């Protein structure tokens, strides 16, 4: 069974929420807006594992809260992840024609509309968080603070900037870890931590979940590296280049065990299953 | 005297704040991050009238509050305005090589870094608002709600999407107004309204300021249209195409008078001066 099959209730809830969100915004229905909406929905519907929003909902579950309490966080992190893929695929970045077996956004809607679709998704993330948690503004503010930090200059965007600026002689091992942590780890961690804030976790619960998310982010990157590794064309930023495949596998096992142990005190069956899936995919 | 000379105290405060913001973030100082920071700062430093952030500070003044209380809003709207210019100038959008007599961001830093600089500025806007108003989360949440709405799908980004999707036979007059309102008016209005919220304006004060900002946004667009109008190459979305130059000038005068009248009850000398400047520039 795939992760999406094991958690089909959660994944269905996420997909229904992210698809209807922009449909509901379409009431203005001006010509250019329709195309923007179509462009946004196209990328939201081009599948994916829904890994980040799933983490948000499973965090709610681990805290014994209704899934709906973390749903706005789940939507926001999926919108941000989707925007980053649309911008990443643009000709000036990775210049990809396909993603998940389908033409990339700009191949269907043109580069200008793809650029705007990404901008719209990013902006909408913060709007929906402010709107959804408006009645509990301390939660709204902290969730927005966490997610915008993870997505911005010291997080995802900063990591992408470092990734495209390879210094002479390549990145050092320390720099590789930084790029990974900023580009991928930060948003994964915030998917859990912001959900914990939205579900009013106690300081102790939040600390356990944060530790889990830190380690999961790292484990996720290690598994990605093992998955992507091709000895004939090593990527400049892969950890494997520095320590080899076997050592990376051993490290993945160790990090996963620590990750699962971090949430021992919670009722976190779902979160543990995610960490095991990540381990077993490579 | 120019607007920047009349309000040199306010403009200096704004420029110092927006320039130091990303310098202070540079403590990480990884190679790619340095270039991202340089790219962001390059566009922030390429001048401009600082029109939007000036409105935010003059709103604080009209309410008898210290300028610093609206400074985070001022920074956020200038960051968002700057990001929109960087993305607008990209080859897939307007493909401009110069802005304000200087090479555009992507001409200096490359398209990929320009794209990321825009993404970083947009994300940072919401981060800085959450951080600055964290102690008053109801204010933080409402300010972020207002600004993200103005910048997003039903505001600036939506307007840009409509603008690049010209229907067969051109936009109707109603559509032209919509594009203007969403693309330009929304962010100008929010520069005032979000500052009013940040300065804890009373409902009555906020209503007056909102009315002022609505009318100023419209007056600003009318003046821009008169300024840009070239009878030999009319743009598809100009109001002037539909009603002619003279009628547009008369309309600008009428809208400006209403705009100034809207803040009669406040100590709003600065805001009135801005409306007069806008009238007199054409």
Record keyword descriptors for this entry:
homodimer, 282 residues, mainly alpha, two-stranded antiparallel sheet, 14 helices
Distance between the termini of chain A: 15 Å
Q: What's the order of the H and E elements of chain A?
A: HHHHHEEHHHHHHHHH
User: How does the major sheet of chain A shape up?
Assistant: 2 strands, antiparallel
**Overall spatial form of chain A:** globular
Count of helix runs of chain A: 14
In quaternary terms, these chains amount to: homodimer
Largest interface: A-B, 60 and 60 residues
Low-pLDDT ranges of chain A: none
What's the pLDDT, averaged over the residues of chain A?
A: 92
Our estimate of the beta-strand percent of chain A is under 5%
What is the helix fraction of residues of chain A, given as a range?
Answer: over 70%
Which structural class best describes the helix and strand composition of chain A? mainly alpha
Compute the CA-based radius of gyration of chain A: 19 Å
Main-sheet strand order of chain A equals 1-2
Q: Count the strands of chain A? A: 2
